[in-house]
Write a structure and sequence with these properties.
Layout: H1 4-14, E1 45-50, H2 58-73, E2 77-82, H3 87-96, E3 102-105, H4 111-117, H5 124-129, H6 139-143, E4 154-166, H7 167-172, H8 182-192, E5 194-196, E6 199-202, H9 216-223, E7 228-229, E8 232-233, H10 238-254, H11 256-264, E9 283-287, H12 290-297, E10 303-306, E11 323-329, H13 337-349, H14 351-361, E12 364-365, H15 368-371, H16 383-390, H17 405-418, H18 425-443
Parallel strand pairs: 1-2, 1-3
Antiparallel strand pairs: 3-11, 4-9, 4-10, 4-11, 4-12, 5-6, 7-8
Length: 449
């Protein structure tokens, strides 16, 4: 599974607020009943589960196999799985009164909209009744599954981001270990870059936002760059400024136009022509799932993984990183709420289920028990992402009623900054922060976010 950058693009198309999830800001009923409905193990019931994996592909097969395990444990529950469903369809079904019993979303950025509008019910009554320990999930995972005290979702698997590096290219350049700071990353990237005139044959590291998995959110934790300070946008902070100055300095060293041409020929991200997999990128920011792509497409690649480098003045944060993940909830209007909860609870807290999903999908399991299970069978390079997952400096972006709209607005500014269209960085960031504040106030129904 992959979320993050792809989820942002999907969210822009989804337009949760435009589809009418209440005011996208807290006026919706957050639970269908407010109490946990009793589950009758002797009553046959069918629940419908919508999930976004592509029908017929490997990922759907892995998901279905764990669903079959659930049915063995709960023989009175038949699960009807509908694959290939995006958030837009989920929202439309809630509005139309024909929602599924359970929905899986790839975008934790939508948690704020789902919870604040009541599109997904508040799961707290069930969590309390069944004594589900929410602290089995790391703090960042707990953060992206609730909004303003309402936990309307549970985490399935996580994506964790780090640095991939080509060991052979680093050795040829005389580099003995991956960089740990931004300055080291710049120096190594320059040493690893190979050119033919203005043509970049091999890029040491391409920092451009929007290229492959390069997203502002993914860079932020190692720089201690925070999205909000209380209710106000914090994108004009010194940490963000330092990150963006580093970003542009490296882009300018390559030459903006040269780097754009390199990206145009870099190959599709999720294909065997991926530039890192083909030795055209010496280092890359990516998620743990890349290990599975490399194993399938280029098993000959000699590579390593490491945490992302930190800002030069943030070295104590090394080892942490960015985390996001898939979320599972019960849409408002489910006719089989009790059975739906049994399914959600099983899929998101059962250690065997999570380990099986993690092994099959090459994603990070979200409970401490599953993440440390001896039954995890993944490539050695995957351990880096389990370590980042457990690091206290690992963070996610805060859920908001607007979904990922604040990130989209910020990245729109960054694209102009990288292209040399911004003359005053601080002024531009302050203006962007004001736009984000206005956007969040509007998404919250005219009230302070």
């Amino acid at each position: 599974m992959t979320f993050s950058t792809k989820a942002l693009a999907a969210l822009a198309a989804t337009g949760l607020c435009a589809l009418g999830l209440a005011a996208c800001g807290g006026d919706g009923d957050s639970s269908s009943s407010g109490t946990a409905q009793a589950f009758d193990p002797n009553k046959d019931v069918t629940i419908t589960v919508w999930q976004p994996f592509t029908p017929g592909e490997r990922e759907s097969g892995v998901f279905d196999s764990v669903v079959a395990d659930f049915e063995k444990v709960h023989p009175n529950v038949q699960v009807k799985v509908v694959a290939g469903v995006n958030d837009e369809k989920i929202v439309a079904a809630v509005r139309g009164g024909n929602a599924p019993d359970v929905a899986l979303s790839f975008s934790s950025d939508n948690t704020g909209a789902f919870c604040s509008s009541g599109a997904w019910i508040d799961l707290q009554p069930y969590i309390d009744r069944d004594n589900v320990d929410i602290n089995q999930f790391p703090a960042a995972v707990r953060e992206y599954t609730e909004f303003n005290g309402t936990r309307c979702s549970m985490p399935l698997l996580a994506d964790v981001y780090g640095l991939y590096y080509n060991k052979d290219l680093l050795a040829q350049a005389g580099i003995t270990e991956p960089p740990k700071t931004a300055s080291e990353l710049t120096a190594d990237a320059q040493k690893l870059t190979q050119r033919s005139g203005d043509t970049i044959d091999v890029a040491g590291f391409d920092p451009s936002i929007g290229f492959y998995e390069n997203a502002a959110a993914h860079y932020a934790p190692p720089w201690n760059a925070q999205w909000f300070d209380g209710d106000k946008s914090d994108v004009a902070s010194p940490e963000w400024q330092a990150l963006l100055k580093w970003d542009k300095d490296l882009i300018d060293w390559y030459g903006y136009d040269n780097l754009q041409r390199f990206q145009a020929g870099a190959g599709e991200e999720f294909s065997a022509s991926n530039a890192f997999e083909n030795g055209k990128l010496a280092m890359i920011l990516d998620g743990e799932y890349r290990t599975a792509f490399i194993q399938d497409e280029h098993p000959e690649l000699n590579y390593g993984t490491a945490p992302l480098p930190t800002g030069d003045d943030q070295t104590s944060r090394y080892g942490g990183g960015y985390i996001t993940g898939s979320i599972m909830g019960i849409p408002k209007g489910s006719s089989n709420e009790a059975a739906a909860w049994e399914f959600v609870k099983y899929m998101t807290t059962n250690t065997d289920a999570l380990v099986k999903l993690a092994n099959g999908l090459a994603n990070v399991p979200t409970t401490k028990a599953a993440a440390t299970s001896p039954n995890l069978h993944l490539v050695p390079q995957f351990q880096t992402f389990l370590d980042i997952f457990n690091n206290p400096n690992t963070e996610t972006n805060p859920p908001k009623a607007s979904g990922a709209a604040y990130q989209e607005l910020f990245e729109s500014f960054i694209s102009k900054w990288e292209a040399g269209q911004v003359s005053d960085l601080q002024s531009g960031l302050e203006d962007t922060a004001s736009q984000i504040d206005a956007q969040e106030q509007n998404a919250s129904g005219g009230q302070a976010p």
